[in-house]
Amino acid sequence: MSPLHVVILAAGQGSRMKSSLPKVLHKVAGRPMLHHVIDTAQTLGAEKIHGVIGHGADQVKASTTAHSVSWVMQEQQLGTGHAVAQTLADLPDDARVLVLYGDVPLTTAHTLQGLVEDLDEKTLGLLTVTLDNPQGYGRILRNPAGQVTAIVEQKDASAEQLAIKEVNTGILAVSARHLKTWLPQLSSSNAQGEYYLTDIIAMAVQAGMAVNVAQPGNPFEVQGVNNRLQLAELERWYQSREADRLMTEGATLADPARIDVRGELTIGNDVLIDVNVVFIGKVTLGSHVSIGPGCVITDASIADGAQIHAHSIIEQTSVGPNAQVGPFARLRPGTQLAANTKVGNFVETKKTIVGEGSKINHLSYVGDATLGANVNIGAGTITCNYDGVNKYQTVLGDGVFVGSNSSLVAPITVAAGATIGAGSTITKNVSEHELAVARGRQRNVAGWPKPEKH
Ligand code: UD1
Ligand code: CA
After folding, report:
1. Is the domain of 244 the same as that of 163?
2. Together in a domain, 242 and 279
3. Is the CB of 322 within 6 Å of ligand 1?
4. Domain-embedded: residue 441
5. Based on the domain organization, do 16 and 100 belong to the same domain?
6. Segment 68-123, tens digit of pLDDT
């Protein structure tokens, strides 16, 4: 089959967003709309992706350095036909060309497959949708036999044509050879003084070609974003689809309308997700995991049977099987909790490995630390890991018990089985099974006269 080239139009200003950010960089599900479109093009197996940019071109380019897109500038936005024409020199004659919009982010590859699959030199693929309110869109004109004959833009349409509810999504596919013939022939003598890409439909029909029409599974797939209300609508549609998927795959959602997935969430069976949980980046939840309300989980893996209680914030962390986290825990990047560990309320960890069965139950900061198995960290323990310039390690062996309100001044090693007395500031290493106490001795003064008010 001939190579597929995808042209993404993204030169428009998007003035109704009222934003200094180019419209196509506004995010749906945590990713710029343009990235969704680029990903879809890649899923379709595009040999090359051409991005037509104008307004905010530098910002758009800078945001997509990880993607391979061939950018072309459209200095003046003279219309969609003019925009596609900017890529002609870069399109091989035999290419199948699919035109997508950078501000229409959620068209599925499945829907587009239908347009490009059977495309040959004798057909043009057009994605249309039937809307109750077709206001603003180009209308699809069909002859009495039901064949598409042309598209007429809203501003050029007669009263009769305006009543048509089948509209142009803007997405179409056709061979490059035809675009090279037709686009130079476009005229701008129309209501908007623009070079309309839509005029090629009538040209195709004139040339005796068939127009193959496809429709999306859901109108949201082809909804463009012109303002922040539409952005929010698409976001909610995306999230409701994600919620449906998760429930189908074995999650119970306390409220399918109150979950946000901004990335890739993979789950096992019997997962329980309470309200207002946000998942960001790549997150994996094993089977029988439960996530309490209000948690934010970013790039993390949570193993089977682990329970994350309310309002915990977890980032770049792996949580082992049957671990208990929170409520109100903050696990920062580089935290690894082994099986059956417990990290309780108001505990912050960072770059810390917590061995099997170990507990940090309350009110602690544990950073740059390695804890063996069955370590118990008392409430209010702090690893003093930073001297203002450098970071140092704290190492606690298996079975170490750290009394409450202790400071462990790193670098420090407390060997297996050792105990730290409560309230200690530990600055020297402790050997196996030693007790270390480092605090002021208590003095009791008998019959001490309490101060009186002057
Ligand atoms: C276009 C279609 C209309 C369709 C509608 C669907 C034409 C003439 N009309 O109208 O039939 O119903 O989309 O939303 O094609 N762009 C450029 N350069 C330009 C002009 C536009 O890159 O010179 C980009 C815009 O950034 C946008 C897309 O093309 O992403 C569509 O442009 P827009 O002006 O929104 O087209 P509509 O008038 O809505
Ligand atoms: Ca538009």
Report:
1. no
2. yes
3. no
4. no
5. yes
6. 999 999 999 999 999 999 999 999 999 999 999 999 999 999 999 999 998 999 99
Count: domains in the chain: 2
What pLDDT, in 10s, does the model give residues 362-383? 999 999 999 999 999 999 999 9
CB 175 within 8 A of CB 121: yes
Q: Which residue among 80, 106, 131 has the greatest number of ligand 1 atoms within 8 angstroms of its CB, and so is best to mutate? A: 80
CATH of the domain at 368: 2.160.10.10
The range of the structural domain enclosing residue 344 comes to 228-436
Residue 18 CA, ligand 1 centroid: distance in Å: 18
The pTM (predicted TM-score) of the whole model is: 0.94
Region 243-269: mean pLDDT is: 98
Ligand 1 center to 196 CA (angstroms): 8
Residue 65's pLDDT band (boundaries 50, 70, 90)? confident
Cα separation of 271 and 285, whole Å?
8
Largest CA distance in the chain: 111
**Does any domain span residue 353?**
yes
Cβ pair 394, 411 in contact under 8 A: yes
Which one of 205, 222, 239 terminates a domain?
A: 222
Q: Are residues 324 and 291 in the same domain?
A: yes
Q: Separation of 319 CA from ligand 1 center, angstroms?
A: 47
Q: Are 257 and 395 contained in the same domain?
A: yes
Residue 453 covered by a domain = no
